[in-house]
Structure formats: structure tokens, C-alpha cells
């Protein structure tokens, strides 16, 4: 029987963002027990790093994970950032799509979903409120406030259940949050590995982590240099659509279309405005609000045809090859390491990005299967480790397209190497809100490939020199073993005393040759740094604690 239209529409409803993600938590990355917990670590750690960076503070992060029952944990996370003013606490933790990072700026966060997503997951699995502790500057004072909050899913807002003030002398934010149906793991996709990689990509950070077994890991910072503050970058005309132009026109208070274009986009000069005017016939003095869709399309067509200077790149702040090497050396303790930060490039014509790569070979740390060291690929975007969805990622695609045998390491999977790739951009093209993989944009894939091949050549040179040194050593050893026998036999035959041959041997045997090879290894033409690790002096200190509390 056919149903009435009005009857069908009786079910029509509106969903808030929180209701939507309550039904689709996998879209926030919360799927699977290990992954869900790692994503929580990711959200809280990236926020602390962003907040510290913006405030010019060297990050000190403490995390404690306590097991309360099977798949049931209490997480305590605290940082020394600028804190969150009281009025914003419920917005930060209980409102989806609310944040301070909706700008064209290089930051780890972009969407205003991370904190509220964690609170939502906690509430959905335990029904418990979360406790937030914020210490923030208010004029000359530092205020301390603690709140117990819940997320009102139907309204996408926060409910304050309890509030108290406390005295404090330093700034920072902290959260205590419970989860069920999650699990802690030491695997490559687990929370511990996430922290380890975070420290490699952020050598300026110090993280203390107390795991559920009572082990306390202290990852010391490898550098005291605070990364420079990224700046906002205006969108480049080659990267905008007609819809972007209409959006700009609707939300501006500029009186003339030309001023809007020149002030909201980069590289649009008065000269370019004239070119557009001549080609399209659009009056550039028009009020932006009167620009039609058709006109916006015509402007975009002209943007495609006109030559503009490349997008500005001063807003991008890479880690830098020295810092990457420091991070790699301190955490992976490799036999050989090298890193490279490339020049900025643009994808989709108008979004600038920088690729950074690093390689670590051999050594005592790194991924192991059984006793042998295996290859590990460490993907990062804006210094944040990407742990999941590697199959669809631009980084995986680029690394797989390289013929690694050319670089003397055979099959990539079985080689004892760690490959580090970081993509820096004001707009990393993530494939989903979970932000775990980067879209394989042609320019990005090409750039990663080029950069990696360049450092792989350095590794190849190092391996070649190492092999030559080994061969030389073997040859010298044979010589050293044989000569005394020959001398003895000759002396016997000649009925003479065995001469003192050891001094002569020293001059010609392997010692001299090995010294020579070692010198060659260190020569600048090899451009590779050999890291000799005698004692594993770990940046991460591991302790087993009784019942110490992290504050
Ligand atoms: N530890 C913190 N210290 C200070 N401010 C914070 C902290 N954590 C979050 N914030 C503030 O709360 C806002 C919301 O954080 P949230 O994690 O929800 O989203 P985001 O970081 O902006 O984006 P994304 O969802 O992509 O991570 C941030 O933009 C920031 O202004």
C-alpha cells in the first residue's frame, strides 16, 4: 500500500554533531579496542603540543594509564601549556566542531573534534563524567579550576556537575577520563609506540608515561629549542573554488570585490585584478555580496589561466633535518642515520607543503620480529605520528614505488631500517576525520619519492663503504694468519732462527688498512654520519615503580 508523503515525513529529525558521532564513532577513529585507546592518546598529546607551541612553552606532558578491570582503564593526562580559560572548558571538551584552529595555519589539530570525541567515547562506554583541571592566566593572576562535566549529546553542549577552585602557581591543563572496551598494547599500533614516535617527531617534547603495569617511561627532550610559531597563510588563488569565493563574499565586511580578493588570498595584486577585470568584464569595485555564482566561476577560470607567484611558504615550519636526526638517534640508536628537509612545493596548484625524510639503519632499537630488526615506516603529518590506515596513504604509496634493491638493502620489509616521513602543510589532505592517512596527491607522492631516494643513496654509499671495509678486514686476516706459518717454514728450511716478524707485520697488515677504511667512511664525500653506539644511552628511561602517583 502506498504511504502518504506527510506520513513519511513524520520521522524527519535533525541530528546534532554529537548525535551523529555517537552513531558513527568509527568516523572519529574509534574502532577496535587498541585503536580507540591510541586515538585518545593521539588527541590529548597533539592538543598539548599545539597549545604549548602556540604559547612558546617547552612541552612537559605526563600520562598515567591505570587498569581498573578487563578492557577498563582510567587515563590521567596533564600538560604545562597555557591552560584553558574557565568559560571555554565545556566548549573544548563537550562541543563538537569547536576550537581555535579553523585557520589556514600549520597545526596538528584542524577540526575541533578531538577533545569532545574522547569525552563522547568515555561517556558511551562508561556513563561516567570526566574531570578537567585547568590552570590559566587571567590578567596578573593564575587561576585554577576543576570541573566534572558531561556531554549533552542532544544539544552538543556541556553539563557542569561539579566545580571547585584551587590555588596554583603554574599554567596547564589536565583531564581524568575513564574508558571501557579499549585495550593497552605494546604493538606497533598501541599507545606506547604512539608516544615513542611522537618523541621522534617532536624532539623538543618531554613525556613521562606510567603504563598499567607500573612501568614509568621518561622520554627526555633531545633539544631545548621551541619550534618557531607557525603563521597563518592566506589561500592561494590556484587552490580556491567558486564556492570558496561565494563563501568569502558572504562573510566579509569589505566594500569592494577587489579588496576582498587582495586581502583574503595570497599573491593577488592590483595588476592581477586588472587582468581579471579585462578578461571577465566583471566590475571589480562591485560589492562582494552582489557577486553571482556565474561571476565567481569566471574568476576561478581566470585564476587557472593567470600566472601567480608560488604560494608563500614562510608560514610552514618543518622540524629540520638536524632535529630529525637527533630524534632518530636518541630513540632508535641506529648504526647509521641521515635526514633531509626539502624545499616547499605546492599540491592542487595552491596549497604549499614540505616533505621531510629520515633513515635509520641497524642498531639496537627499532622494530623487531623475534630477534631480528625489521623495517618500520614512520608516517607523520605536521609532526603527528599516523598509526592507522597506512594502505591508503600517500607516504606508503610513495615508499612502495621505490626499488629498494638498488640501494643495497634488498626487500624493504626485511631490511633493518626505519624510514621517517613527515608532511608539513597548513592543509594536510587527510582522507577522513580520523586523520590517519594522507590523500595520495600526485605532487605529494612524487616529492616523498624523490626525497627518500636521495637519502637512500646516502645509505647505499655507507653500506658500500662498510662492505668494502669488511672485505678488506677479511683479506688482511688471511694474510695475518698465513704469514707467520710461511716465515716459520722458510726459517726451518733455511735452518735459520725465526726472525722477529711481528713488527714488520704491523706495518703492512690489516690494522693500517682498516684505519684507512675507517677514515674513508668518515670522509665528507660519503656525507653520511656513522653513529657508533657503545653503551645504549637511551633518551627513554624505564623504571618499575611501586605506587608512585603522577601529579
Ligand atoms: N591541552 C590544551 N591546552 C590548551 N588548549 C587546548 C588543549 N586541548 C584543547 N585545547 C583547545 O580546545 C580546542 C578544541 O580541541 P580539539 O582537540 O577538540 O580540536 P582541535 O585540536 O582544534 O582539532 P582536531 O579535532 O583536528 O584535533 C583547541 O582548538 C584548543 O583551542
Automatic annotation (TrEMBL):
Residues binding ATP: 47, 79, 100-101, 109-116, 435
Gene Ontology molecular function: ATP binding; DNA binding; DNA topoisomerase type II (double strand cut, ATP-hydrolyzing) activity
Catalytic activity annotation: ATP-dependent breakage, passage and rejoining of double-stranded DNA
InterPro entries in alphabetical order: HATPase_C_sf (IPR036890), HATPase_dom (IPR003594), Ribosomal_Su5_D2-typ_SF (IPR020568), Ribosomal_uS13-like_H2TH (IPR010979), Ribsml_uS5_D2-typ_fold_subgr (IPR014721), TopoVI_B (IPR005734), TopoVI_B_transducer (IPR015320)
The keyword GTP-binding is annotated on this UniProt entry: no
Keywords: ATP-binding, DNA-binding, Isomerase, Nucleotide-binding, Topoisomerase
SUPFAM superfamilies reported in the protein's UniProt record: ATPase domain of HSP90 chaperone/DNA topoisomerase II/histidine kinase (SSF55874), Ribosomal protein S5 domain 2-like (SSF54211), S13-like H2TH domain (SSF46946)
PANTHER family to which the protein is assigned, alphabetical: DNA TOPOISOMERASE 6 SUBUNIT B
Subunit structure, as described in the record: Homodimer. Heterotetramer of two Top6A and two Top6B chains.
HAMAP family named among the record's database cross-references: Top6B (MF_00322)
Name used for this protein in its record: Type 2 DNA topoisomerase 6 subunit B
Amino acid at each position: 500500500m502506498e504511504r502518504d508523503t506527510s506520513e513519511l515525513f513524520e520521522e524527519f529529525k535533525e541530528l546534532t554533531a554529537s548525535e551523529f558521532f555517537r552513531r558513527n564513532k568509527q568516523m572519529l577513529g574509534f574502532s577496535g579496542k587498541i585503536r580507540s585507546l591510541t586515538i585518545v592518546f593521539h588527541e590529548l598529546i597533539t592538543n598539548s603540543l599545539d597549545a604549548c607551541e602556540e604559547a612558546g612553552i617547552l612541552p612537559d606532558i605526563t600520562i598515567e594509564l591505570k587498569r581498573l578491570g578487563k578492557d577498563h582503564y582510567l587515563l590521567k593526562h596533564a600538560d604545562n601549556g597555557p591552560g584553558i580559560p574557565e568559560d571555554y572548558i565545556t566548549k573544548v571538551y563537550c562541543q563538537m566542531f569547536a576550537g581555535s584552529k579553523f585557520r589556514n595555519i600549520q597545526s596538528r589539530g584542524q577540526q575541533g573534534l578531538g577533545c569532545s570525541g574522547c569525552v563522547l567515547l568515555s561517556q558511551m562506554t562508561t556513563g561516567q563524567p570526566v574531570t578537567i583541571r585547568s590552570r590559566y592566566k587571567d590578567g596578573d593572576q593564575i587561576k585554577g579550576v576543576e570541573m566534572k562535566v558531561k556531554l549533552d549529546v542532544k544539544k552538543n553542549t556541556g553539563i557542569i556537575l561539579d566545580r571547585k577552585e584551587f590555588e596554583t602557581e603554574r599554567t596547564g591543563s589536565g583531564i581524568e577520563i575513564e574508558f571501557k572496551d579499549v585495550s593497552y598494547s605494546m604493538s606497533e599500533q598501541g599507545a606506547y609506540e604512539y608516544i615513542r614516535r611522537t618523541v621522534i617527531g617532536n624532539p623538543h617534547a618531554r613525556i613521562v608515561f606510567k603504563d598499567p603495569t607500573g612501568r614509568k617511561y621518561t622520554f627526555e627532550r633531545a633539544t631545548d629549542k621551541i619550534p618557531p610559531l607557525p603563521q597563518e597563510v592566506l589561500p592561494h588563488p590556484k587552490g580556491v573554488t567558486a564556492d570558496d569565493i561565494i563563501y568569502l563574499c558572504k562573510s566579509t565586511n569589505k566594500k569592494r570585490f577587489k579588496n576582498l580578493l587582495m586581502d583574503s588570498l595570497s599573491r593577488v595584486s592590483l595588476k592581477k585584478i586588472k587582468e581579471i577585470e579585462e578578461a571577465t568584464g566583471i566590475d571589480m569595485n562591485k560589492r562582494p555580496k552582489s557577486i553571482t555564482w556565474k561571476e565567481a566561476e569566471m574568476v576561478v577560470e581566470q585564476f587557472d589561466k593567470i600566472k601567480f607567484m608560488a604560494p608563500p611558504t614562510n608560514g610552514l615550519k618543518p622540524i629540520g633535518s638536524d632535529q630529525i636526526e637527533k630524534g632518530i638517534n636518541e630513540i632508535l640508536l641506529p648504526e647509521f642515520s641521515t635526514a633531509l628537509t626539502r624545499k616547499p612545493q605546492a599540491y592542487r596548484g595552491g596549497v604549499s607543503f614540505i616533505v621531510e625524510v629520515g633513515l635509520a639503519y641497524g642498531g639496537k632499537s627499532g622494530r623487531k620480529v623475534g630477534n631480528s630488526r625489521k623495517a618500520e615506516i614512520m608516517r607523520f603529518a605536521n609532526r603527528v605520528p599516523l598509526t592507522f590506515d597506512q594502505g591508503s596513504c600517500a607516504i606508503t604509496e610513495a615508499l612502495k614505488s621505490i626499488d629498494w634493491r638498488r640501494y643495497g638493502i634488498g626487500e624493504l620489509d626485511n631490511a633493518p631500517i626505519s624510514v621517517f616521513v613527515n608532511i608539513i602543510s597548513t592543509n594536510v589532505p587527510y582522507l577522513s576525520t580520523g586523520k590517519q592517512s594522507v590523500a595520495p596527491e600526485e605532487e605529494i607522492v612524487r616529492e616523498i619519492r624523490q626525497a627518500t631516494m636521495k637519502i637512500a643513496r646516502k645509505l647505499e654509499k655507507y653500506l658500500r663503504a662498510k662492505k668494502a671495509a669488511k672485505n678488506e678486514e677479511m683479506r688482511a686476516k688471511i694474510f695475518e694468519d698465513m704469514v707467520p706459518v710461511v716465515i716459520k717454514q722458510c726459517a726451518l728450511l733455511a735452518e735459520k732462527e725465526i726472525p722477529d716478524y711481528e713488527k714488520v707485520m704491523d706495518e703492512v697488515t690489516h690494522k693500517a688498512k682498516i684505519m684507512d677504511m675507517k677514515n674513508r667512511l668518515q670522509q665528507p664525500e660519503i656525507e653520511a654520519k656513522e653513529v657508533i653506539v657503545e653503551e645504549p644511552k637511551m633518551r627513554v628511561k624505564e623504571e618499575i615503580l611501586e605506587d608512585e602517583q603522577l601529579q
